[in-house]
């Protein structure tokens, strides 16, 4: 009951701030094209789905923590690193193709144009495909999928109507900059270390019974 109450409270606090940050600000600058009511309906449905998803996950996490005993904080950190790896590496590599239709890009001139520029930086294009943009990638026009020096260029369908060949190249090179700079890897490492510091601090604090009493538990481990 305590965990559910905390999740509901966090949702009630976050929702109005999220509406202002993700909708109102973009609307004021002309970037938000979705009408207010459909956006609110979608955001509300996603919030409810998130709550329904988090409740069993939280229950499972508490069960695993009880099983891990005094090393519960290390288990949480391992799960956190796994999530970071999935979120910022695997989704950029292959999982974007899972259950999502794509079709080959047919413009041979633009294909050769992009291939020539990527070769200058030592990268080979395995192929260029067109795909509908996932809902959670609202600001993306292009994605480079794959690993190493061989990449697949994914062009989201809306970009074909909005971007010229030079603008498309700029978007591809922007993504290439992230790839060459190992931005995903550095982000994973940074948040993994941050998570390790936080979980180890909680692990030390949990040695004091007052830690659990403060959260409404008699003793967890």
TrEMBL record:
Q: Which ranges carry the Peptidase M48 domain?
A: 141-204
For this protein, the parts annotated as crossing the membrane are: 6-23, 43-64, 70-90, 186-205
Kindly give the Gene3D superfamilies that the UniProt entry links to this protein.
Metalloproteases ('zincins'), catalytic domain
Q: Domain named CAAX prenyl protease 1 N-terminal: which ranges?
A: 2-82
* BP-aspect Gene Ontology terms: proteolysis
Q: Name one GO molecular function term.
A: metalloendopeptidase activity
Q: Which cofactor does it need?
A: Zn(2+)
Pfam families in alphabetical order: Peptidase_M48 (PF01435), Peptidase_M48_N (PF16491)
State the UniProt keywords alphabetically: Hydrolase, Membrane, Metal-binding, Metalloprotease, Protease, Transmembrane, Transmembrane helix, Zinc
Q: Tell me which InterPro entries the record gives.
A: Peptidase_M48 (IPR001915), Peptidase_M48_N (IPR032456)
Presence of keyword Transmembrane: yes
Question: Which PANTHER family does the UniProt record give?
Answer: CAAX PRENYL PROTEASE 1 (PTHR10120)
For this entry, the protein name equals Endopeptidase
């Amino acid at each position: 009951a305590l965990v559910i109450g905390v999740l509901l409270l966090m949702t009630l606090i976050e929702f109005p701030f999220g509406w202002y940050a993700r909708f109102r600000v973009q609307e004021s600058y002309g970037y938000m094209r979705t009408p207010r009511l459909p956006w609110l309906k979608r955001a509300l449905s996603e919030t409810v789905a998130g709550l329904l998803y988090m409740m069993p996950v939280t229950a499972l996490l508490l069960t695993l923590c009880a099983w891990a005993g005094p090393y519960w904080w290390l288990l949480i950190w391992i799960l956190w690193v796994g999530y970071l790896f999935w979120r910022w590496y695997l989704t950029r590599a292959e999982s974007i193709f899972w259950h999502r239709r794509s079709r080959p890009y047919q413009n041979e001139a633009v294909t050769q144009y992009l291939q020539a520029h990527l070769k200058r930086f030592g990268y080979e294009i395995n192929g260029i495909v067109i795909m509908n943009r996932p809902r959670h990638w609202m600001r993306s026009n292009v994605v480079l999928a794959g690993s190493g020096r061989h990449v697949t260029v994914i062009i989201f369908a809306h970009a074909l109507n909005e971007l010229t060949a030079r603008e498309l190249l700029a978007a591809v090179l922007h993504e290439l900059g992230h790839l060459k700079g190992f931005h995903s890897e550095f982000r994973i490492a940074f948040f993994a270390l941050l998570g390790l510091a936080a979980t180890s601090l909680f692990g030390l604090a949990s040695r004091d019974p007052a830690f659990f009493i403060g959260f409404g538990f008699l003793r967890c481990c």
